[in-house]
Amino acid sequence: MTVPHIISKIYQKSNIRLLLHICFWLVILLVRWHLSIITFNTYNGLPTTELLVLSIYNTTLLASLYYMLIYCIYPYAIGKKKYFAGILTLILLFIFFAITDAYLERQILNACSGCMTIIKNNNPSYYTFLHLQFSNMLFKRLISLGLPLGIMIMLAVPISIKVGLNALRNAYAKAELIQEKAKIELDLLKSQINPHFLFNSLNNIYGLILNGKTDQSALLVSRLSELLRYTIYEANNEYLIIQEEIRLIKNYLELEKIRLNHTKVTFEMKIDHWETKLPALILMPLVENAFKHVVDVPGSFIRFVIQADRQQLYFMEENTMVECVKKMPAGFGLKHLVKRLNFFYPNRHEYEIIEQKDSYRVTLTCML
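and the corresponding structure tokens:
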């Protein structure tokens, strides 16, 4: 078992991750405490117990700042591209850290009998600094940039570890996806034009020809030909512009509609930029799934909505559903769709399925 594989497995188990985080901050605490004992610093000469208390509060504040930065500010500022709000929040967080740090330090040192005397004898300038008015002391800490720079240096270790592990985990995930690429492409081809769909389409077109509907049958032959041409000549293309994606979907809809007698199929779209590129046929499994699971009876419907601009893709599909269809397991097309979404839009997509008593609804939003 490789190191990336072990890291990936650990990442999936929240209890192990929590334990490792606790162990990491305990190590940081012990290192800080040890260094405060053996090195010359502002607390030189203080009792070991007081140094431990100071190390505990300082490490706790540092850990709180780290988690707020990594799990709150970073996803909000970078993920949603709200940089100004993110920088402002970071500045306010630094100020809050400075206030809390100064307040707790003063309280701990004042509660220790003899601590201030030791600091006065060993470090008179810091003793004078601690007895400034609280607002002046806070202002000096911030304006000198000593505290912000100190925070950045202290956070450099956990952030570097976090970034390194994420990079290793992402590299492993990409390697797994590359290994599965051949299988995914094969399954994708199967899901694009499967033999059952092809047989039904040809059979329906043959029926139209026998009934003398040559114009309609010729149009459907053209649509089927276009789908087959894409499968044969362009299936290896990684991306399609949304105009081509929609055209292939429309061809598929028209070919499926000829076998339906009662089901109402509607397709709505609002496209602001037709040259937007999408992973090839990323929406097709959702379209296919609607037709596979709808029962052609009076009152049945399938509704598609596609909206896209330069920043976002929105897709919604809703169809009627009966109880027996609900028990059917998800096909490989939808399973591979989730893999492709995670590969092309990591942390930049929302995929939601809502099953109600007699309807099925799926929404997909991707930040492009």
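(Above: one complete record from the training split.) Residues 3-178 form one domain.
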